[in-house]
Amino acid sequence: MASPRGEFTSRFGFVMAAAGSAVGLGNIWGFPTQAASNGGAAFLLVYLALAFSLAYPALMAELILGRHAHANAVNALRLISPAGLLRRLGVTTGVVGLIVASLILSFYAIVAGWMIAFCLAALASLVGMESLAQWLTSFGFARNVSFMLLFMVLTISIISEGVRAGIERWSERLMPAMLITLVALVGYVLTLDGASDGLKVYLLPDFERALSPKLIIAALGAAFFSLSLGVGTMLIYGSYISDRENLPLLGGMVTLVDISIAVLAGFLVLPAMYVAHHNGVQIFTETGTLISEDTLIFTVLPELFSTMGIAGVVVSFTFFFLMSIAALTSSISMLEVPVAYTIEEHGVSRKKAVWVIGGIIAATSTVILLNFAELFGLVIAFTTRYSQPLLGFMFCIYAGWIFNRNTLLQELRKGNPDVEQGLFWKIWPWYVRLVCPLIILAIFAQTLLG
Ligand code: PFF
């Protein structure tokens, strides 16, 4: 019998949805631009090491808690904790997670709105509407609010359809479209003059920088953000997985897709930067360092496209279309966190919950836009640098220490009768208990000290 709270209908559906959440602006914009300014392949290696050794086990903690409880993060942590302080702390962790997910969406929707505007600007210049194209690419309040709202309405429309007809169906469509677009763009950019210089920077590691604390902190933040960890997104997606599925395998697939797309996006963005350099666009500052990450996407790449004539307009459209789709499959997962909680905890209908919460988040985005210089960077730092690692730490503690050990192991056996023969069974239960929390704390301490 179908569960009344909704369930993914297939393994493919879940992997597309969870990978859709994971793959977003963080992969296609964040990862390549951070790699470019942090020693290229050195960053890539640290990122890969952290993704497999830390982010994957932390992802498994969320998936297991979610699948066990078949409920949102607040209820899941409440269910597994003994009454008293630990239960209250668990509930608080879940609530903070849903606030952080909403705050992430409030800045994400602004950036995603820019992506849609740049995508439409390419269309406008294709049909000769240059002044419209200029408005679409200029940083004005009216443009910013309009496209943030458009993006929020798209996100709300998908989430109001529920798990199967909304999240699963749209992820199954959008993710393959995104992958094809990305591969086509990489193929094209690699044929252009100057691309090989970008490949060299991306693939030759500067080991001196690989071990610098700044780089490790940046890579940890990138890995957590990229796998959508610490805010209950993966926990809620885990809660929609059937008990027949093999969780370590599904989590592994999601991690692999996420990392592969980040690495693939590096083959697009770094070569594109050096093609731009080759075409006379400035990519270094006066002191010889690379220009900032946002300048790269919104200035360097558009300038590059404009040196390429009509092909540039098509490539520009395709690139920003890709960014918009990637952002949408992530934003739906963020909105689902507070929505699922409100439906399950307060008995509100999905439609009502989606519109009210979506409205509050859009209002928050508007406040950020009105105080852009003060709030934008602050909200990003608060959510991604501090909250995500700390909440990820709490999820590992609850999975590793508070969750009854036998029940946890029982959960691992579901859908996977041979699990006890595998490496995962031997390593993960200890890993999530000791190694993950200690590494997260060590890196977090560095963040505070640095
Ligand atoms: N993983 C997304 C990205 O890489 O862009 C961002 C994200 C999605 C963060 C969902 C947090 C979240 F809950």
UniProtKB/TrEMBL annotation:
CDD domains per the UniProt record, alphabetical: SLC6sbd_Tyt1-Like
Top-rank taxon, per record: Bacteria
Pfam families xref list: SNF
Cell location: Membrane
InterPro entries given in the database record: Na/ntran_symport, SNS_sf, YocR/YhdH-like
Keywords from the named record: Membrane, Transmembrane, Transmembrane helix, Transport
The name this protein goes by in its record: Sodium-dependent transporter
